[in-house]
Amino acid sequence: MNSTILRTVDVFKTYGKGEAATMALRGITLDIPRGSFTCVVGPSGHGKSTLMHLLGGLDRPSSGTIFLDDTDIGALSGSELARLRGRKIGFVFQFFNLLQGLTAIENVETAMMLAGTSERDQTKRALELLGALGLGDKTDSRPSELSGGQQQRVAIARALANDPDILMMDEPTGNLDSTAEAEVMTILHSLHAQGKTIVIVSHNNDIATASERIIRVKDGMIDSPVG
Question: What whole-number distance in Å separates Cα of residue 126 and Cα of residue 109?
């Protein structure tokens, strides 16, 4: 099995055209080792979230190549890329992105519906994940009835629903207080210890220093050697 799970080669990303064009990424080449815990850090507006979106196949580069395992994701059709994302990557965002009209268990089940999992197995898996994340008594609660930390744990459960190889997280503790942030980071380190590859985008230096590898992005480029 390839020891590198994600690889980019000379990736550029430009938004807009002509005089209105903005170059968000300028020739990014990097490797993400399988099973690593990587934090992408840098000032706001310098390309780190754009990089995560490209790594996760949520957007396509203007030029350059991105490999997930040995698959050139730029060569895939939209439907092929969506299926690959569903199998390989779980996403967690700063604002949770939970469906407000659904309960915690229903929010987790939605990820499995798209993968064609049976209703019985959806419920079983969702209950297992929510229980493991300390939300066994909150399965029927809607997001408005949960704290920020609890909502983020539901989002993590949803991201894990299809047992992806990679967890990608964009400022996952940005809306949390210090106690909830510590709880989420404990969960992430536990998942990493179980073999998950974790990629976090954050401006938080405490999160960066707690990670295994740091990629610093500035002005759309790698600012320093990966450590």
Answer: 6
Q: How far apart are CA 49 and CA 187, in angstroms?
A: 22
Q: Report the SS3 class of residue 154.
A: helix
Residue 49: which residues within 8 A CB-CB, separation 6 or more?
A: 170, 201
Residue 41: half-sphere exposure toward Cβ, Cα within 13 Å: 20
Tokens of residue 92, six digits: 């967690």
Alpha carbons within 13 angstroms on the beta-carbon side of residue 217 total 26
Q: For 44-69, write each residue's pLDDT tens digit.
A: 889 999 999 999 999 999 999 999 99
State CA 135 to chain mean position distance.
21
**Cα angle 99-148-47, degrees, rounded to a multiple of 5:** 80
Nearest to 168 by CA among 25, 27, 13, 39: 39
What percent of the chain has pLDDT above 70?
Answer: 98
This prediction's pTM: 0.89
Task: Please name the amino acid found at residue 154.
Answer: V
CA distance 77 to 57: 11
| 80, 57 Cβ separation under 8 angstroms | no
b/e code 164-182 from CB counts within 10 Å (16+ = b):
bbbbbbbbbbbbbeeebbe
Q: Residue 169's closest CA among 40, 36, 66?
A: 40
In angstroms, rounded to a whole number, what is the distance separating the alpha carbons of residues 156 and 224?
A: 30
Share above pLDDT 90 across residues of the chain, in percent, rounded to a whole number: 77
